[in-house]
Amino acid sequence: TWTINDYGSGSNDGTSSGMTSANLVVSDLQQTSGYSPYALSLDGINDFISTTAYTITASATVSAWFNVNTVGSYAILGKTSGSGGNYYGYIDNVGGKIRVLLRDTINSFSLKVTNEDYNANTWYHLAITQTSGVATIYINGTYQGALGARVPELNLIGSYQNTFLFNGKLSNIAIWNTNLSATEITEIYNQGVPSNLNTFSGTAPVTWWQLGSNSSFN
Prior knowledge:
The chain is mainly beta. It is built from one helix and 17 strands.
């Protein structure tokens, strides 16, 4: 299994399932100097990452870079079944555009069709800020609208109850326990070039899975 190191303050390392050293691939996502030039590639069949159950506070921000092999419906964050609800956040395709869906209870979910074209083999940056039960969506640093839902708990990356398994590459998934501003989201996107999240101008993330060469394989 891979140990997916958490470089945030929460020390919530992840553990892979169904993955080998072959899942570590050279990333064509441009990086800042000295940054890991790798990403983790998931096969959409049985690859995912599990972590200790993490509660996302009412005021929070989630950031992730993703690149799909085939346009489809994929979970980026999810939760195994259990008490308190079945939560997930996933992307799918509506009319060639990326749609973001958040499910915050067993029967309550909210979705937003964005203005961003959904293409395979293309890196995207997704950021979701939330406060007072409202989630605000950004793709590639651009505001896409708001949803009346949030994902309050997770323990899976790239899967939801063994469904919506991610098929493609994931990099730099991070969580803050504060509602970042639009300016800070733009800074994190950094014109498509990920940078060191522990040194950006805002609060450091509580969880940051770089999903690169700093993950260790046993």
